[in-house]
Every structure is written in C-alpha cells, then in structure tokens.
C-alpha cells in the first residue's frame, strides 16, 4: 500500500480499519501539491466515499482565489480553494461527474470525472455534443485559466485612420485626386494637355445647363447674398 | 458543411450584441449580497470582524463596523449544504455540513479552505453533533454524533464507531487529561465511554448509577469541563458528576419549587462548577432567568438573581471570568444590554449598553463579546438578530454600527410598481378632457392653466434650484444621490425607475428603489406571518401577493394585497388578507390595520381580471372546500354585474393517492356554493412538477410572423394555454419528463412532448405562442432545453377573437438544444408593447444571470437552410446553444442560489427591467432588441458638433473663395 511515511500512519496500522486503496492513492498523487494526510475510516457502508483533488491556476485576477467555487454536477457538491489554489472534495460516491470551476474573473474548461466502484478516477474533456469522443486528461485535476471572460464589448473608438480608410471617405477622396492632382500632372506635360483639349472639344459644353455646384452655391447663399450674384452678372456684362 | 455552418454562426454571433460595455458596469445594475439567518455567530473585535454561519448555507465574514461582507462561502443549495455545526477554533473555523457528512476547515482571515474530510457517512435522520476542541492534540477537534466519534484536524481524520447499543443518544463529549469521554443516554440509562486521546482504544465503559432512573435529564458540560451537570425537571434538582471518576459529587442539589413557581419548561442553560443558570418561560411567554449558586455543604441551591422578561442572553468568558449578558426593552425603542459578572455575582453597571432601536422587535439571537482595551478596561460588543431578520451590532456606547436586512435573502414574491406621475404630468393628462362634459372651451382653459402652472413651477423650483446650485458651486446630482426621501421620487421620463415590492417568507415586506443601488425606501414587518409551502421537495415558502390598483387612478391610492397564514389569539391557523399601499408601505385606509383574518384554508389565490368601480382588481381566494371568496367584499357586486354569460374557468391542481397528479377546471361564479367542476385531467402515475402560464402583463404586438417570402405565418395565440410539466418513472424505474400543453377552458391537451430518460428539475416559461423548458438528459448526461412554438398557419382562424372552443389544430415547431449548465430559475423579458423580441433570462448555479437571445432558441432554426429562411435571418440549427460570457447580465458580480427572476416593462419599448432574488439580489436593465429607441450613451456629441460646425465654416469659407475666384475670372 503506497503510504507516504511522512504521514501519520502508526496509530491506524494496528487498527482493523479498512482503507480504501483508492483514497490512499489519491493522497499520494496529490503530494505534488501539498502534504495531505490520508483518511482512515471505520465507517462500513456499501457506498464507499471517494475524494477528488485538483488544482486551479489563477491567471487574470488574484481576487478570484477567494471567489472561486468548484461545482460538481452543477452544484450538487461545492468545493472551495485552499490558499495555494488546490482543492479537495470529499464524500463522492462512485459515478460520473462534471467538474466546473466558477470563477468571476477566469475562464476554465469543464471536465468530466468518472469514479469507478474501486475508486479509480479517470478524467476526460467534457464533450456534450459527442459523448463518445474521449480525450483523457491527467489526474489530479489541473485547471488552467483560459484568461479573462469577455463579459463586455469593446467600445468603438474614434480614430482618424478608421475614418480615412472607410469606403465612403475613399469614394470621396478618389474623385478629389482626379480633380486636383490630374490637372497639375496634365499641365506639366503640354502634349498631354493638347490631347486632352482635343478630347474635351468633342463634347461641346452646354453653357445654359446650370451646374449642380452652382445650384448648391445659390441654395447655400440664400436670398440676401443676391447682390454678389448681380455683381457677377455686371462683371460679365462689362466683359 | 459543418465548418461552413460554424463560420456562419461566428459571423452571426456578433450581431447579437446583447452584452454590456465595460464602462456601463454598475451604472444601472446593482447587486446586494446577503447571508441569511445566523445559526452560529462569533464577534472578533481584534480583527474587527463578525463571523456568521447561516441557515441559508453560507459562511461569511462581515466587517464589524460597516456591515460589509469581507468574504463569503456559499455551500450547496438545499439540504446538501446545510450547516450542522460550527467550531470557532483559535486559528480556523471548523464547519460540519451536509447532515454531518462533511467537515471543513476555513481560515479566518480570507476564508480559504484549509482542509476537508468526509465525516460520519450517510445519515437517515438529522442528529445532534457534539464537538470539543482538543487540548492535547494541536488544532484537532473531537466530533461525535449518536454512532460515531471522530478526531479531525488539518493533518488527519480518525473515526471510530461507538459501541453499537441501539437507541443510545450521545449527549455530552469531554476531553480531560485522562482521555475522551462520551456520555450517552437511553431512556433512563446513562452510559460513559472513555477513549484514549488518539481514539485507538476504548478504555472503559461504565454506567453512571447516580443518573439512573431519571427521565428527560438535561445535561451540560460545566464551564471548566470536568463536570457534567444534569437537570431533572421531575425532582427539580441538579446533579453534578465529576467526569473522571464518574461519581456524583454529593446529593442532588435541589431547587425549591417555590422559586420557579408557575414558570414552564425549565431548562438548564449554562453551568459552571458552582453556578447554574436556569431558563424558563413565564405565563405570558416571557423568558425568565434564574441564577443559582451552590453553597458549601448544602443541598439546596441558593437563588442569586432572578431576571424577568429577558429578550435574549449570552454567556461570555473573558480571562477566567464569566459574564452573563442579557437584554431587555426599556420602554419603546429603547433596548438595554446588562452585564452580570458571574464570578463576583454582581451587576456590572459600567458595562451597561443602552441603545435605541427603530424596530423594537424581539431578539432571536444575541451574541456578545467582552474585550479589554489598552487601559485594561472592559468593553462589550453585542450583535443582535431580531425577529424581523435584521442584524445589528452595538458597541459599548450604545452606538449601532450597522443594520443588515437579512430578510432580503428570503424573498418569495416580487412585483415592480410604477411611481405616480408628477402632478404636472397628471394635469397634462387631464388637459385632454378626463370627463365627457369637457367641451372645447373648458379644455382650452385647462390648457392655458396648466401652462401657466408649468411656467410658475419652472420659475419657482427649477430656476431657483439652478441658481442656488450655481451659487453654491455644487452639482445638483450629488444632492439627490445622498438622501432620497419618498416624496421626492416621481416617475422619470421613461418610467425606468420603479419600486420593487418584495415580500419575504418571514413576513417582512420591502420597497426597494430600482436605482441608487437598491436603496430600501420603506419596509414593514407583518408579525405572525406563516408562509404557504408549495413545494415539499425543496421546501419552498411562498406568500402570494398582488398589485390590485396601480398609481394611475388618482385620487385612489395604489393598493397591494398579501395573503398569508397566521395564528389568531387562540393559536389556531387562519388565513390573513392584508392590504397596503406599495408606494409608502403603509396599511391601506379602506381595510383594518391588521388585515382580515378568515377561517378557511386557502388553496389558491388570484387576482380577478376585471376591475371594480374603484379601479381595483379584487383578489379571489379559492378555499379547500372549493368555495370562492372575494376581497374586498364590497366589489363582489361589481364583479357579478360585469361577468357576462360566458363562463370563466379557473384551474387548480389536486392530490390523488398522495400524488399531485390532477388538474381540475372549475367554472367561476361569485356565490357561496362550491364551484362546479367542468373538467378534470388525471396524469395517473405522473407527478405535476411545474405549470407555466403567461405573465399577466405579457403584451403581444403582432399576430403573425413575416416570412422571407413576404407571406405571414399566423401565431397560435391561445390566452388559455398552460404548459404542465409532469415527471414519472417507467416500469424499469427510468425517469421521464412529459410536457402537456393544456387548454384550460376545455381541459383538452393541445399537444404533448415526451422526454425519455430525462429528469428534472424542469424550469418552464411561456410567452406569446411559445414555451421554453429545461431538463436533464440522463442518457447523454447533459442538460438540454426545448423550445416549442405554435402557429395557426397561413390563414388566421379569427383575427379579432380567439375561442378555445374553435377547432384549431396548431402547427407545432420544436427544437431541442444542448446547454452547458442547468438553470435554477427562468423568466422571459417583458416590454411595454411587446415589439422587442422576448429573450429568456436564466440563472445558473455557476453564479451568472444570463440573457439567452430568442434567435438562438428559435424552434424554427432550420437544419437545411433555404433561401427564404436566410431572407428571414434565421440561424441554421446547431445542437448546442453557446452560453457566451457576453450574455452574462451580472458580469463578475456573481449571485448564488437564485430562487426567482422577476421582469417588468419600462416606459421605453427597448428596455425591460430584471430583478433576481435568492441569497443575493440583483437588478439590471436588458435590451432584447438592442437600444433602438434611444441614443447610445457613448454617442459622440463632440464629434457630431465639430463636424457640423466644421461643415458650416467650410461652406462659408468656400463661398468666400468661390466669390473671390469668380471675381478673378470676371476681371480676366
């Protein structure tokens, strides 16, 4: 029987108490975490009770050490963490359990634990959709934090680049480039200029057609700015 | 294909943005944590902490000065987490829970578990657990029940079985230098067992002859723990026995009969070697204390002090001295705590605490602690748990440190009540003519009048306030935050703030303001309230409570009715109907102050759907003899007049062969006769475990659903439909769950669903034309939910009126989904007009309150997507509903052991108010269809303003430039 000598064995050895091999095995396995004493029990019931051990690694927030609860089968059994993050849940009968860690500031994956009648504990990844798909995990349980649960959405922040890269702005910027940059380029190249002039002469501009920009201009201008318009007309007449 | 679907879902999920933004946390939601009624209390003035182990399966550490919870451990819900025994040891808290099956150590400082073991094994019934802190073994404790004796500590657990002599009840446990002693009784036999300290051998087993032949001995460990003191009521004497030798010290010490006189039920409350405290009940049920002293060489005990009509007492040891601290009410609202020095046998007047209390309720538990300060002066701190479940701590000066309303951990029924409109708003309503006589001129006059009043009010109140606040340079909001009085609160613009009227199973009623972090506006304690038990399994208590009249009917006051059981003066069980105003918490003016006490036993209580002439919805009580009683009685004639020739059917559950399996419909008539039975549904071996009907304020906006091809699928909107969940076991003892959709007018089953190899607990909600319920699938060992939606089809049978008697066969859609967790409680969101989608709010043991979007549980989610369905924005069927963290309404503020969820609509169509209760209470607002009717709070006003200003400036500038360039052109 693998009993660690550091644990107090002397008083129980002479007594005719029935150990559960599984329990002593568990305790030995958990020595990696802490020197846990073994249990001896004289209670002879048909349903032997087993103990589940494990460790929860907290990453995001130290506050969680106090607020973490270990839920077995949605709170049929509840366990609490020791100050080093380990936990022990005694009093489980053989069966299959889902172990879940309820921590407000850490995310953990739930695990299915099967305890057979001899107390052998097998753990595997919880797969609700395909229960036959088995991925064996190590026992004692070791829960690694998957980070901070994303309870909140990120607010959209105002950034210049976002605006500049938005399709609307791009759609407006491109014509501007054509409007302002292209004439400059054209003016540097006289040959091109001539070509362009020829091409534009194909489409004789209809002078009487009011341009949209002019309409907008008049609209924004309002009524009282009419004198300017008159002046312009005067100018044209003078010409 | 699967990956495509997953991709689709991933794209769709961000669309269901239900979650919060981080800066919104705490802006409108709040959580309050409670502990429940203390079973064990310890005051530690050095640490400035109060430790409580409670009836509600919680172990908590509270700041002694502020009353805030420092840490709290919540055990399993129900029996499995019940705390049976607590040892406040020197360095750790030892908690025995789950009916003696588990023992755990907790650290005082931060509440970490230190060690845990399984203890006594399965028990058939509750047994008393005895404990002794070991003196020899460091940090070890002896624990015993009737069958076992254990030595537990952080390092090991040793358990032995006590010799199996049937019927022995363990009464006392001692540890002396000579080993561990167990005293146990069987009828008139007293047995003493002696073990060595390691419990490895039974050293002796003797019969205590002196205690022979006395029935009903009450035995106690004396203070110095080497003596056993036993009190026999028969001969009213006290035996003291030295534990080691097992010999009685001398002849029994007798108490003269005349001293206790006519007092009942004497009980030995405390003893030391020479002092004995006997507690009795006086004729008027007051608590009397008698302190006796043993004189040398005398057989009669000497009465040292008689203390009459004590509220509560506690005995405290402090450095070899013992004090008896007891409390008495001195007049109204004045509570005194006296300290009696047992060693010097005199009253310590310097340790008297005189405190003012508001509630002046009886004290259920008193816990005191005596400490010595630097000047070696003693001081007393007391914690009182009152009968109205409020917990207060008083210091030596009589200053109350805090009051915790622990009754809020016992909420059984909740309603959210609207505040009245401002009187201005009322006049607004009036303006459009409240009566028919109003003609155009009077209406015009009223309009001018109101506007003049508004102007006056604006100048008087708003302007003055603004000016003064400007002068004082203090923001106005600060003032309203600190002290809110009831009169100041009126309905806000969008009716977002309401008053939550919460009725607790102990009879205390609270009015809680939905903003200002759940400030309690009023509370009252209805004495002598006994709750109805409705679920024998979970032992749930309920007190039915309804809002009869809202604040909308000026000049009538709003009114609520509360129905409970109560004892009358002779101690017989009666039914009480109590009326109160939900806005003030005061008893209603139209009814007796103590409510009506009626003789019959109520089986069911409900609110009539019709109003009487005073806009009051009368409450209808259905008694065990199937008779109907209406409160207030005056409105019965109104109801009789209004009831048309169409019968109203009510339904009720019944037990048959001790099995809750029958649903019966009765035709309602307001007479003295028992109601005639109309239909009866018997589910044979199945047990009814839940019934879901629509919430009374459930609004339906649309009669149909518009499909992708622009056709309409009409909903089956049967207002008489209920969902009945039954559970049972088949011939191989495999449990199953059945859900029947029953039309309560005809008693016919519209549809039913069978889930084999599934078990409860089943939670079910019903709204509009759909049902949603959860259960546990034993075959696949997972929790599942099913949603069911009923439709009439492409054509509506009758668009104006629904009749249960019409032969409509609804088209049923149903889908089952896998969920990761079980749900403790479930509720559907409510909105003003029912235009927003209805989401389901669930509470999990995990500690989260989640909002499951309807789009995920829609039973019409197709397995194979067609073009039409894609057009309708349905998600493809996926077996699992991912319970994302974004759905969590309470983010990291976890709440535990939630028993119920209450929802209410607000004035904004997008917003629904959610209140959950259990051990903790939590309130928030939810937006099932997002906030479509208000500007988001992160709306960038600055950005939009700069943009506007910039555009205007730009236009002006370009105009100038254009003019200039035009001028230039003209000069060319």
From TrEMBL, chain A:
GO terms for molecular function: carbohydrate binding. It comes from the Eukaryota. Keywords: Membrane, Signal, Transmembrane, Transmembrane helix. It is a single-pass membrane protein. This is ER membrane protein complex subunit 7 beta-sandwich domain-containing protein. Residues 62-171 form the ER membrane protein complex subunit 7 beta-sandwich domain. It is found in: Membrane. GO terms for cellular component: EMC complex. It comes from Brachionus calyciflorus. The chain crosses the membrane at residues 163-182.
TrEMBL record, chain B:
It holds the Pfam family EMC1_C. It comes from the Eukaryota. It is found in: Endoplasmic reticulum membrane. Residues 1-19 form the signal peptide. The keyword Cell membrane does not apply. Keywords: Endoplasmic reticulum, Glycoprotein, Membrane, Signal, Transmembrane, Transmembrane helix. Residues 20-406 form the EMC1 first beta-propeller domain. The chain crosses the membrane at residues 939-958. SUPFAM superfamilies: Quinoprotein alcohol dehydrogenase-like (SSF50998). One of its GO terms (cellular component) is EMC complex. Its main location: endoplasmic reticulum. Residues 767-971 form the ER membrane protein complex subunit 1 C-terminal domain. Belongs to the EMC1 family. Component of the ER membrane protein complex (EMC). This is ER membrane protein complex subunit 1.
